[in-house]
Amino acid sequence: MIRKILLVASEDPKTSSHVRVALDIARRNGASITGFVAVDKDQLSNIGPAPLGGFHYRYEMIKNRVARGLSTAKEAVAGLRKICEANDVPFLAEETTGDRDQSLAQAWRFQDLTVLSDHVWEPGSNEPADAEILLHFVAMGLRPLLVVPQGFEGTPAKAMVGLSGSLDSAKSFKHFVQMRPFGDIPLHIVTVGDPKSGEAPADLLRGAADYARLHGYEVTTAALPKADKRVRALLDHGHSVGAELFIVGSSYHQFLTMTRFGSHALGMLTLSKYPVFVSH
């Protein structure tokens, strides 16, 4: 059940794929959208020391970066509001000028789902944040996240669930099944190699399929052989069965070491041309 969606703003909402996907989910579920943008003045001021005699130049550069950040952030939120109003989707603005992480955590507390681009926009900065910032958000507790690559269009026709046998991947799978962001979308559930839980792949897949079917989903399954490049195996198999959405799990400890499923989640976020639903 989705009633409130936190939508992280982009510089140009009219051309952003994640905005269109958030609108689709909102209309489908009768949800409102909260448009989030934060201008982190401290971060924008971090441009390194000034050379000898360059203090005034450094001061002007910082002032211009902050001014641009504030201006583009205001324009982005106004653009989101206009798009939501045109689509009859209730809209609230969450604009802050403080620390981005703290502000985002505050905004997320009473939201059901966070939707954002795979290249997170930082107002005033010339470069988007890299994919690791997305797992940083997961580690902060902002779950679940739906990450939408720029260029994706339409509504996913099928979702693929990658189960590792861990509780984290099961939680992500259950979050998606219970939330139904895209309605009764067909699910394809897969394992790669031996599950971490120690059970046979067929047993894990049977339990997951039974759970999804009880929730009204059409389900298919596949047990893939062990692969050195697990992310590539998942993506290639997903493409072969027509999956246009990937559901993965990640955990805080694995994120810190960037190993196991943490690195798998990062790989999916980096390489997938389709949306990725991440939780833990």
Would you kindly provide a brief summary of this structure?
This is Universal stress protein family protein. This protein is α/β, with parallel strands linked by helices. Helix content is 44%, strand content 18%.
Features:
single chain, 280 residues, alpha/beta, Rossmann fold, ten-stranded mixed β-sheet, 10 strands, 44% helix, 18% strand, globular
Topology of helices and strands:
Blueprint lengths: L3 E5 L8 H13 L2 E7 L2 H4 L10 H32 L4 E6 L3 H9 L4 E5 L14 H9 L4 E4 L10 E4 L4 H13 L7 E6 L8 H14 L4 E6 L5 H11 L5 E4 L2 H6 L3 H11 L4 E4 L1
Parallel strand pairs: 1-2, 1-4, 2-3, 4-5, 6-7, 6-9, 7-8, 9-10
Antiparallel strand pairs: 5-10
Helix pairs in contact: 8-10
Describe the structure.
The protein is an alpha/beta fold. It folds into two domains: about 5-130, Rossmann fold (3-Layer(aba) Sandwich), CATH 3.40.50; about 160-280, Rossmann fold (3-Layer(aba) Sandwich), CATH 3.40.50.620. It is about 45% helix and about 20% strand. The protein contains ten helices and ten strands. Strands 3-2-1-4-5-10-9-6-7-8 form a ten-stranded mixed beta sheet, with helices on both faces. Helix 6 links the parallel strand 6 (about 160) and strand 7. It is globular, with a radius of gyration of 20 Å.
